[in-house]
Design goal:
heterodimer; A: mainly alpha; 2 domains; two-stranded antiparallel sheet; 4 strands; 7% strand; disordered N terminus; B: alpha+beta; Arc Repressor Mutant, subunit A; 61% helix; WH_DNA-bd_dom (chain B); Transcriptional regulator (chain B)
């Protein structure tokens, strides 16, 4: 027979399988749910994923800054090309998701647990392909089609930001929230996605007169990195309190 | 009389699996379901069992084909890893379903 003490399971002999009290099934189910939740909490390394992604985001800023080609015209308008992003992000995201998967597995293993991190690593790899593929597709499309005269619709900007590396980071974080069944991460990711898709000008940067072209591009990236970093610190603090 | 027999036959408690319907074994199945793979020591700590007791329960589950036990070494240290089989995952889901039905039946009365 087993006598539950709080959330733990204290064995008293181990032979009988009694279920005498009418409320036992409910208590049993409740204990199983608690046990499952505890295992899930011990597997979580959300802060590590956020920290790695913040590091990759911050490291992209100088790459973008120095690799950007800017050509300004006498009328004050400027043209720019962010080729560096295309060369930086695919290998950087592959390395980042590989590192996250490795750190998750190592931490879980040291606690005596396995973990379901493979779907996350696969999604990371897929998004690595999606970003340059989308970039190339848009480039090829506008080579044979003229830019529309009127202002582009708002959804175009949202879609453009979604296939950018910062939007892809949000998509993989959504998957991580689902894998970890973490409402906290879901909430955080929703806020992050709203920021990088709807608020920050990730594609065009903040413009004149307050910022130059390079600084205007760097600031939204720094904000996105800072949000990821703050998220990592927050999830780390919550995890420490739970253990 | 027939009505009572039919009612008994349909009672969710009659379908409970003797191998699975045991707190410790349900605990083992639940943990392995969440973690995919679990080390013996982790199970022992979480379920607060002696090594001997846990081994007995693992043997029952392994014989029923609900888990797989894999022994190996990590450096010089012996490690035993437990993995839930597809049959084990189904048995756990069925058991939880029956427990929910049982609760619903008790609440209906």
């Amino acid at each position: 027979m087993l006598a539950p003490i709080g959330l733990l399971w204290k064995p008293i002999g181990m032979t009988a399988n009694s279920m005498s009290a009418a409320d036992d099934p409910r208590r049993l189910l409740s204990e199983l749910r608690t046990l499952a939740r505890r295992v899930r909490l011990e597997q979580r390394m959300t802060w590590v994923a956020l920290l790695v992604l913040a590091a990759v985001t911050f490291a992209a800023i100088p790459v973008d800054w120095f690799a950007m080609q800017v050509r300004c015209h006498p009328d004050g308008s400027c043209e720019f090309a962010r080729q560096g992003m295309l060369y930086y992000w695919p290998p950087a995201t592959l390395l980042a998701y590989g590192a996250i998967a490795f750190l998750y597995l190592r931490a879980a293993r040291s606690r005596g647990l396995g973990t379901r991190v493979l779907p996350y690593a696969i999604t990371g790899a897929v998004t690595t392909v999606v970003f340059p593929a989308a970039w190339l597709a848009v480039r090829l499309y506008f080579q044979s089609h003229p830019y529309p005269d009127g202002p582009l619709p708002y959804w175009y900007f949202v879609l453009d930001r979604l296939v950018m590396p910062w939007g892809m980071i949000g998509v993989t974080l959504l998957l991580l929230a689902w894998l970890e069944r973490s409402p906290g991460l879901l909430l955080f990711t929703s806020g992050y996605l709203a920021l990088v898709l709807l608020v920050l000008p990730m594609g065009d940067g903040f413009g004149a007169p307050h910022f130059g072209v390079r600084a205007g591009m760097a600031v939204p990236q720094a904000i996105a990195g800072l949000v990821l970093l703050l998220g990592a610190a927050g999830f780390r603090a919550v995890q420490r309190r739970h253990r | 009389m027939t009505g009572t027999q039919d009612e008994d036959a349909a009672h969710p408690a009659n379908g409970l699996d003797e191998v699975v319907h045991q707190r410790v074994r349900l605990g083992i199945l639940t943990i392995t379901h969440e973690a995919r793979r679990v080390e013996f020591g982790y199970l022992r700590t979480q379920l607060e069992l002696t090594a001997g007791n846990l081994s007995k329960h693992l043997s029952v589950l392994e014989e029923a084909g609900l888990i797989e036990v894999e022994k190996g070494y990590e450096g010089r240290r012996g490690r035993t890893w437990i993995t839930l089989t597809a049959l084990g995952a189904k048995a756990l889901a069925d058991e939880i379903g029956r427990l929910k039905k049982l609760i619903a039946r008790v609440e209906d009365r």
